[in-house]
Specification:
The chain has 407 residues and is an alpha+beta fold. Helix content is 30%, strand content 25%. The protein contains 13 helices and 22 strands. The strands form six sheets. Strands 17-16-13-14-15-12-18 form a seven-stranded antiparallel sheet. Helix 1 links the parallel strand 1 and strand 2. The chain is elongated, with a radius of gyration of 25 Å. It starts with 5 loop residues before the first strand and ends with a helix. The mean pLDDT is 95.
């Protein structure tokens, strides 16, 4: 019987609520408290996906799913084997929340409103008599004589059988102080998911334009990604850039966000392939500017022609070998100087957090302090944009809830 068991959930965000509700489902006799240091609950859920809440991603193969995590790929394999994307969809469906899939694989509630998810969580918490305390901060956790956990907060000191830490990702080390006191290592906190600032480039004047298939590379590193590239009033964004920023987060940090960026506007074509493509038009009397290739938007095509020192009044038939080569080079290796970053809208994600070697991913329990569990972005796990960070939250929370009273 678990009637005397007290479970504390630290953090009133997505992973905290999911852990608390699943603790109640798995251990109905336990007393569960959610402790939130601010005066708001589920704030990131509310603004995620432009207010629609990108619950998960339509990626049902775990071998493919884990590839979307720059940090935590290996560890999440054993987590997703216990609670998968399909399990997530079924969990919400059982509570009247049906999800829909968009063309890019992102999954949202059919209502297109994040309040649907929030109301689901609050309703479940009330249904299972989960206590919620706001504006109370955890200051320290330590072991008691009888192997329970003594939790000191800004308001009181209480003893719990289990503590599940789901405080999310933070930019400042001070938010992890009570975990450092437990002996845990906090891996360096660095930004992930950001756009590339190109302050010296006139390409910003083309803000709003995008190519469906560009390859963006950090010069001097192995990092490059292919996908939609969006030009903004800051510089470059879009899925390819955001994925690059996540996987190259540590390198960007070391470079102080000053780096050479190369864009292949053709996707993955090489110089010879592009030259051959351009050569098909060399007998044409049409103006080069009027014949954009490879779905490149006309204004961007014009910009690239001028960058190759080709007159806008020049017809294809007058294009010389050197100019053709220069245009081909610009199309596959358009170089920019990145000077800084801009956080990607509401999708703020921090790489860093609890060192993964200090956690047992079969149970999500701390290897250093028994009965302390972790879930969500407090761990040094982060996914690219598209619902992957929420899937990490749901899966790690479910595993922690299932195993927290094993002993």
């Amino acid at each position: 019987m678990n009637q005397s068991k007290n479970i504390l959930i630290i953090g009133g965000g997505s992973s905290g609520f999911f852990a608390a509700i699943n603790c109640a489902l798995q251990h109905p006799e336990a007393k569960i408290i959610i402790l939130e240091k601010s005066n708001k609950l589920l704030s990131k859920v509310r603004i995620s996906g432009g207010g629609r809440c990108n619950v998960t991603h339509h990626c049902f193969e775990n071998n493919e799913l884990i590839k979307n995590y720059p940090r935590g790929e290996r560890e999440l394999r054993q987590v997703f084997s216990q609670f998968s994307v399909i399990d997530t969809i079924e969990w919400f469906a059982e509570r009247g929340v049906k999800l829909k899939t968009e063309a890019d694989g992102r999954m949202f509630p059919e209502s297109n409103n994040s309040e649907t998810i929030i109301n689901c969580f609050l309703s479940e918490a009330q249904k299972h008599n989960i206590s919620i305390k706001l504006s109370e901060e955890v200051l320290s956790i330590h072991k008691s004589i009888d192997k329970k956990l003594v939790v000191e907060t800004s308001n009181q000191t209480t003893i719990f059988d289990v503590v599940i830490c789901s405080i999310g990702g933070h930019h400042q080390q001070k938010n992890y102080e009570f975990l450092k006191k437990c002996g845990h290592t906090i891996d360096e906190l660095i930004p992930s998911l950001f756009t590339l600032n190109l302050p010296q480039s006139s390409i910003k004047e083309l803000m709003g334009l995008s190519v469906k298939n560009g390859t963006v590379k950090v010069i001097g590193t192995k990092h490059q990604y292919t996908g939609p590239v969006l030009i903004t009033h800051w510089g470059l964004s879009g899925p390819a850039v955001l994925k690059l920023s996540a996987f190259a987060a540590a390198d960007f940090f070391k470079l102080n966000y000053h780096a050479g960026i190369s864009v292949n506007w053709t996707g993955n074509l090489n110089e010879e392939e592009v030259k051959n493509l351009l050569s098909f038009n060399l007998s044409s009397k049409a103006l080069i500017v009027n014949a954009p290739l490879l779905d490149i938007p006309k204004r961007l095509w014009e910009y690239l022609i001028l960058k190759a020192d080709i007159s806008l009044s020049k017809p294809w038939v007058e294009l010389g070998k050197k100019q053709l080569q220069k245009l081909a080079q610009i199309l596959i290796n358009d170089v920019y100087s990145m000077q800084g970053k801009t956080t990607f809208k509401e999708e703020f994600v921090t790489a860093g957090g609890i060192n993964l070697k200090e956690v047992n991913f079969k149970t999500m329990e701390s290897k250093l302090m028994p009965h302390l569990f972790f879930c969500g972005e407090v761990l040094n796990i982060d996914g690219i944009t598209g619902g992957f960070n929420f899937q990490n939250a749901w899966s790690t929370s479910w595993v922690a809830a299932k195993h927290c009273l094993d002993k």
